[in-house]
Amino acid sequence: PSVKEAPQLIAPRRKSRKIRVGKVEVGGDAPVSVQSMTTTPTTDINATLQQIAELTAAGCDIVRVACPSQDDADALPMIAKKSQIPVIADIHFQPKYVFAAIDAGCAGVRVNPGNIRKFDDQVKEIARAAKDAGVSIRIGVNAGSLDKRLLEKYGKPTAEALVESAVWEASLFEEHDFHDFKISVKHNDPVVMVRAYEQLAQRGDWPLHLGVTEAGPAFQGTIKSAVAFGALLSRGIGDTIRVSLSAPPVEEIKVGNQILQSLNLKPRKLEIVSCPSCGRAQVDVYTLAEQVTKGLEGMEVPLRVAVMGCVVNGPGEAREADLGVASGNGKGQIFVKGEVIKTVPESQIVETLIEEAMRIAEEMEPV
Ligand code: SF4
Fold it and tell me: From the Swiss-Prot or TrEMBL record, what is one GO molecular function term (predicted)?
């Protein structure tokens, strides 16, 4: 089913206002977008553009690049010009780079007011420059760099502290009639993070950028992000997401897109329905599922492939899928749209599934 027809969880989308990050809309009824951040030195323009191209191919909607020095700021015009997706410059400490990023043609700027000491005085100029250039801003509040004043007040970066910081910073822009911004309140603890976004969602109609900051290596970070984003998105909270992993950024995009697909917030593409295997398995399900997944990687059609270890649930699941195998006695029964089309020896299961998948995919519309 399309995203609109697919069953949705718990609550409809929260009504946030819509902003633009270059060609990508964020908030309102715009699809939840997926972001990542480059890990190359921004000064290495070619390497950064190469990484952006890889992210784009993996399904990234918006990319952020760090801008910690003048040399990085100098690289922004070329990166913004050549990138296939909107570029957001990530600025800490130095307001002058905000202006440089706007002049460079970046689609957005992320500011961390907790780290920009003279921020209050400069908001008016930043708001005017951003407005004139049609550039949006993210107010990125982060537990690790919370405003000192709030840290003292709350003792630690609690959900309330993050929200107070965000609401105050939002008001600074709003005082100057600037509304093209989204907000994030990131924390490395998914529970604190969820509570912060829940509270923030009640306080205004700002579009929200979700993130569990410093979520950890791939396994832990994936789970923390999936749990936190799932809790929020299932209740309609969140307009754009960034999964933070100590892993290559393409992995962040894969995880982000998989989270959105699992919640029916993005059309599902290839889906492998494979059983966990058990004492009844008559085939090595792990290897089989892995080989099939690998063989079909990058498939752009909504194909559901069942890989089942035995005949208990095997035929049932395999029948429900577009394509499937139910294994037993050294053989695999291959199902297509519920019909057994052939039985092949175990050694030919993978190649047969891949062959059939390609054939079915050709008749399907990419999503
Ligand atoms: Fe076990 Fe068969 Fe179920 Fe796989 S399909 S988990 S092998 S009973």
Answer: iron ion binding
